[in-house]
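S.,

Sequence below, as promised.
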Amino acid sequence: MIGRLNHVAIAVPDLARAVATYRDALGARISAPQALPEHGVTVVFVELPNTKIEFLEPLGATSPIAKFLERNPEGGMHHLCYEVSDLRAARDRLVAAGARVLGDGEPRIGAHGRPVLFLHPKDFLGTLTELEEV
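The prediction came back faster than expected:
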């Protein structure tokens, strides 16, 4: 069921500073910022040969990332995203095994324009987990 690692997401308090750090210090190739109001974030992707790093900056005070940054003011790892070929089938299999899907359980469109779901961190070793259909 689980496919390749799509990205590692890092919550950041200052997107421009995070971009500058990775671009200038590491020579990374960075995507253009993308506002995702339905998720309450602005994102950029650090493009690596084998995966991506996603920087998440809150888009407003009610963003889930704003709440994360209240607890972690310097930022930090927010979630891991894995690819799956059939998101609804993966969801149904996980729910049948006792995993909890966050939100209403229905896929939403993510930053790559593909359906995504988030799984409760308590069910996955304390790590928020995103599944993205590819």
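The chain has one domain: 5-133.

Coffee later?
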